[in-house]
Amino acid sequence: MRPADVRRLTVDEAVDRYIDMVRAKTVTGALAPSTAEVYARDVRTFAVLAGGDQVLDDLTGEDVDEVLLRFASKPDGRRSGSAAGAGQGEAVQSGASQSRFRRSVSAFFRHATVAGWVQLDPMRAATVVPRHRGGLRPERRALTREQAEGLLGTARELAVGSPQGRKRADQRTELRDALIVMLLATVGPRVSELVRADIDHFFVNDGVRYWRIFGKGGATRDVPLPREVAEVLDAYLSERRARETGGGALLLSWRGRRLARGDVQAVIDRVLARVDPRHRRGVTPHGLRHTTATHLLAAATDMDAVRRVLGHSDLSTLGRYRDDLPGELEAAMRAHPLLGAGSSEAGDVPPG
Asked: Does the pLDDT at position 168 exceed 60?
């Protein structure tokens, strides 16, 4: 849930206050001066990489991932020699430095959450984690095909199921929950983009339903909705009109308030609880964004089209959203474009 009064500080303002707090702890002996200076240096670096004029509460797990990966490839002037990714003879950050930087950023956001500077700790949605060796690497977050189909199938059942006899009409959230899961899993918006959506951001052009998504930096993109998702959206909007509640916001709590980012995970968990345990795996909104990218790319969708759906500024960002899928290489080899349909399948032993 969102704190009662989130203070919309810029990254620079929050970092300055955090450093003052950290250094004050050296006076009481709670922190060694050398440790406080490490924290201060790391969060200053974080502010530079994240953009000091950004509002801290607007940063998402995706933004934190980008900062962590940029730090990991940042040349370390204290180390000489060449390393993969280093430029002009300078070595990149060591694995230990990368892990330390992530711990410093985590501590900063834990304090920011308690202090009410952010609604939700973005580190909970960050996918870049320290490995046993080799520093920071993106963690696999995408659902497999079976897991994604299980989640979407359950969302469809919620959308068509009758709520009669279970709840008062003004407390029914089945259609809304189904819509949230289907939008996240098939369109892959950032969670901040989802909760900011208004009803009038959806429109029809030449018989196709579109969502005008307002993304980072004021950028907008018009994404066509899959037919099934458009049908659930129309059903949800019809129910909303019948109840005559909510104003402009698309997603509302049953009390009629715009949903907060922290509420979206609870919706996903509620739908997941209905999924067959054999195909159930916990997932975050950011993990569903990974799922969208992974399965669109695995289906040989044009990379630039996927970039435009997700709202990335360049193709290079897609790399960390692309997770490996079980059996994917085998399927690729079976359908090799240079071999005829009658060739042996990958891994098949030719007859002796």
From this structure: no
Question: Burial level of 199, CB count in 10 A (0-12/13-18/19+)?
Answer: middle
Domain extent, residue 217, equals 145-322
The type of residue at 113 is T
The CATH number that applies at residue 106 is 1.10.150.130
Q: 111-131 pLDDT, tens per residue?
A: 999 999 998 899 988 878 777
Tell me whether residue 44 is in a domain.
Answer: yes
Q: Looking at the structure, do residues 106 and 130 belong to the same domain, yes or no? A: yes
Residues acting as catalytic residues? 190, 216, 286, 289, 312, 321
Sign, CA dihedral 237-241-247-253, equals negative
SS (H, E, C) 75-87: EEEEEECCCCCCC
> 61: closest CA among 11, 125, 113, 134?
125
Q: Compute, in degrees rounded to 10, the torsion defined by CA atoms 331, 335, 336, 341.
A: 140
Q: Judge whether 339 lies within some domain.
A: no
Judgement on whether residues 304 and 188 belong to the same structural domain of the protein: yes
